[in-house]
Write a structure and sequence with these properties.
577 residues, alpha+beta, Dipeptide-binding Protein, domain 1, Dipeptide-binding Protein, domain 3, twelve-stranded mixed sheet, four-stranded antiparallel sheet, 16 helices, 27 strands, globular
Length: 577
């Protein structure tokens, strides 16, 4: 009998018990104000993991996230203009197209069965309560009564079923289909009751339902608009579509029929402004209320000037230099350990990110529930050279390491502008690796075409190493570990999720699988903790850093917060003055 069978839940465990088991408890976000010349209130991180400082010789603020504005309930009215670094080309929950921009729009237009609060704890949304069966295979949800979509269509259990069927349909082309495939049966009991079944117990069910692809859309609107539905988004959320110019601007107006009460703003305008300097200038000029993706240098300047709020959130997105383990030079774990010691991660965080981030001590970010501190690979070029020598790599006449006539020569695949400071990070890694005898060049590709190089079968992979960042967008550690480190099932196909290393460890697979199939949260975290340690020691990557998320906001803005999953949430925003 599998271990998961010992963690069965009672048939009558309602929402309170579900919350206790599913709450991620990553961070406690407290209000902070930075505008008008007043210093920002330091926000304290909640939980054991969050109590660790993310600074590395940089800013002294704690890693806890912040919510814009202070004070009591804000007045209703006004237009919030959100300048985003990415365009919104469509606002279809099953296929948002752009990341994070379209997801952020969907969090305003739609509601899920359950959602996250600011600290990533699960809370009810369209579902009022839920329970799980004694065999852990059937989840029953009771839905809010009297909810309507923006087009007047009643929200009911049939709409929930339609959403899940649509995203699971291969013809829909949803990139999030794999997040829903565990649901194998759907049983509509009545208009306000639905059962979702799985073939095996599935512990992270609630966090998957809270994912950005879980927003429930009007089945009437989907039928009416067909392939154009993404340009006519229709949910139950606090704001509804007024106009949309795909790739440029989305304007949403207050939904006066919102089932949770009247929203605070008249309008929300989401506008793409790809240039960082322009976004910051708009904020300072009062022409944008909120701007995302603030670079550390601008965050420092804005805080010093005291003319805007700077919201800081320790993020879940982790960065690595991933080894293509099909390359012979990377098959020796001693070599991989050596290259980890060769790279000065602390200097990257301190100098390029001004301390707004943390050096990894695990395959997962410190702020995710279940994180285990696995150790460190401190910067030590002499240790790196020693390990390389022990593995048989010695300097040749040109100073480049060689072994059996093969040189330690490889490329770093990256795209410019895909990630913050990506080229500078690649150049810093390149310089460090050259210092220990590696012949490293940077293979820069167009961001739009990069996945055509990476998402390929093993035999077609041209890359040696890849600068890569992964964000577990449902906040779940199991998803993070499974997506990156579970072995790919078919070497003749593209990686199933994001294991671009082609890393394979049977014990890691077993631990990840067992964790996924248990609903005992403590047992699940223990299993994932063991998996983290094994992967850390195997070092299929050079472990780098987890950057903080920085967002600028007008001093007049209240109620905006950042999820550690990278998304800026404006659905509860208000304006003062």
């Amino acid at each position: 009998m599998s271990d998961w069978s010992h963690g069965r839940l009672s048939r009558r465990r309602f929402v309170q018990g579900s919350l206790a088991a599913a709450a991620l408890g990553v961070l406690t976000l407290t209000a902070a104000a930075c505008g008008g010349g007043n210093g920002g209130t330091e926000s304290q991180a909640g939980g054991d993991q969050g109590s660790q400082s993310t600074s590395n010789g940089g800013p002294s603020s704690t890693p806890g996230g912040q919510t814009s504005g202070t004070g009591s309930e804000a007045p209703t009215g006004g237009t919030l203009i959100y300048a985003q670094n990415q365009p919104i080309t469509a606002a279809d929950p099953i296929n948002p197209q752009t990341y994070p921009a379209a997801y952020e729009a969907n969090f305003v237009i739609y509601n899920n069965l359950v959602t996250f609060d600011p600290d990533l704890s699960i809370v009810p949304d369209l579902a009022e309560k839920w329970e799980i069966s004694d065999d852990n295979l059937v989840w029953t949800f009771w839905l809010h009564d009297g909810v309507t979509f923006h087009d007047g269509t009643p929200f009911n259990a049939a709409a929930v079923e339609a959403h899940i069927r649509r995203i699971q349909n291969p013809e829909s082309g949803s990139g999030n289909k794999n997040l829903w495939d565990h649901i194998t049966t759907i049983n509509v009991i009545d208009d306000l009751t639905i059962e979702l079944g799985t073939e095996a117990p599935f512990g992270p069910m609630l966090t998957y339902l809270a994912h950005g692809s879980g927003g429930i859309e009007s089945p009437t609107a989907v039928e009416q608009w067909g392939d154009e539905y993404g340009h006519q988004p229709t949910g139950t959320g606090p704001y509804k579509l007024e106009s949309m110019t795909p790739g440029t601007e989305l304007t949403l107006v207050r939904n006066d029929e919102y089932f949770k009460g009247t929203p605070k703003l008249d309008r929300i305008v989401m506008r793409v402004v790809p240039e960082t300097g322009t976004r910051v200038a708009l904020l300072e000029a009062g022409e944008a209320s909120v701007v995302n993706d603030i670079p550390p240098e601008e965050a420092e300047r804005l805080q010093a000037a005291g003319q805007a709020q700077v919201l800081r959130q320790a993020g879940l997105r982790t960065f690595f230099l991933e080894f293509n383990l099909n390359r012979e030079i990377f098959t020796d774990v001693k070599v991989r350990h050596a290259l980890n010691h060769a790279v000065d991660k602390e200097a990257i965080v301190a100098n390029l990110f001004l301390g707004y981030g943390s050096v990894l001590d695990s395959p997962a970010a410190q702020t995710i529930r279940g994180h285990v501190s696995c150790g460190s690979y401190p910067y030590d070029p002499d240790r790196a050279k020693q390990l390389l020598a022990e593995a048989g790599w010695t300097p040749g006449p040109d100073g480049i390491l060689q072994k059996d006539g093969v040189k330690m020569t490889f490329t770093i695949n990256t795209a410019e502008g895909e990630y913050p400071k990506d080229i500078q990070v690649a150049e810093a890694i390149q310089a460090n690796l050259r210092d220990v005898g590696c012949d490293v060049s940077i293979w820069k590709v167009e961001a739009a075409a990069r996945w055509s190089y990476l998402r390929v079968p093993r035999s077609e992979a041209q890359y040696d190493t890849v600068l890569f960042g992964f964000n577990p967008s449902n906040g779940d550690l199991g998803y993070h570990m499974n997506a990156l480190f579970h072995s790919n099932p078919d070497p003749d196909a593209a990686p199933y999720v994001w294991n671009l290393m082609w890393y394979a460890n049977e014990e890691v697979d077993r631990l990840i699988d067992e964790a996924q199939f248990t609903t005992d949260e403590q047992k699940r975290m223990e299993l994932l903790g063991q998996a983290q340690q094994i992967v850390w020691d195997d070092a299929p990557v050079i472990w780098l850093y987890a950057p903080d998320i920085l967002v600028g906001a007008s001093p007049k803005v209240q109620g905006v917060f950042i999820w550690p999953t990278i998304f800026t949430v404006v659905r509860d925003a208000a304006l003062t003055g």
